[in-house]
Amino acid sequence: MSIKAVIFDLDGVIVTTDDCHYRAWKAMADDEGIYFDRKINDRLRGVSRMASLDIVLERAEREYSNEEKTALAKKKNDIYVSLIQQLTEADILSGVMENLDALKQGGIKIAIGSSSKNTPIILERIGLSTYFDAVSDGNNITKSKPDPEVFVKAADMLGIPYGECMIVEDADAGIEAGRAAGMTTLAVGNACGADYHSPSLAELSLLDLLCDIR
Ligand code: BG6
Ligand code: MG
Known about the structure:
A 6-stranded parallel sheet has the order 3-2-1-4-5-6. Strand 4, helix 8 and strand 5 (184-188) form a beta-alpha-beta unit. By secondary structure, it is of the alpha/beta class. The chain folds into 2 domains: 5-15 and 90-213, 3-Layer(aba) Sandwich (Rossmann fold); 18-84, Putative phosphatase, domain 2 (DNA polymerase, domain 1, Orthogonal Bundle). The protein is globular. Helix 1 packs across helix 4 (66-84). The chain is built from 9 helices and 6 strands, in the order E-H-H-H-H-H-E-H-E-H-E-H-E-E-H.
């Protein structure tokens, strides 16, 4: 098999937290009287908190100072953190555990590559804190997706060459990051530009796909 590791995005690939991000941004935007909908939210997938805020503020009717932006990002994150306290194993997306278990049994390394600084809390809430061979997240990177840094660091932690890694993503920015790292890319959901695509991980055996790629 030419692929030796699979690096998974977290929000919207492993767990339903993409909806919590939407609800938190929507609450913050509504409070500010700023228009926000799910189409705009799709542009925030994979993008860091502050870069996401800049996209939300494109619809604002006034300029915000840096201090105000810091306060708004904190407000969104406080709402988000309160939402993710409710997460349980039941919020792991369909097909995820079956695929992760099969990859492990097939001798494939698995890692997380997420832009989120809340990754440790989420993994703890869904019972997967010690499950992955490596976790690279918003706490150990300086540049968010579409920069490849988060995936490159995950591959380095695993000790696997970038060309032998596949990334799994629900975000255009994440697919771009994987391609920039020289990795094979699999999109789940609506992300564009990937080598492979599946509506979700429930419709796919990743291990079979890796065997087919060779
Ligand atoms: C990504 C999400 O995983 O993490 C983005 O897709 C989010 O929507 C980004 O903005 C940063 O997350 P956090 O939890 O650090 O604000
Ligand atoms: Mg995502």
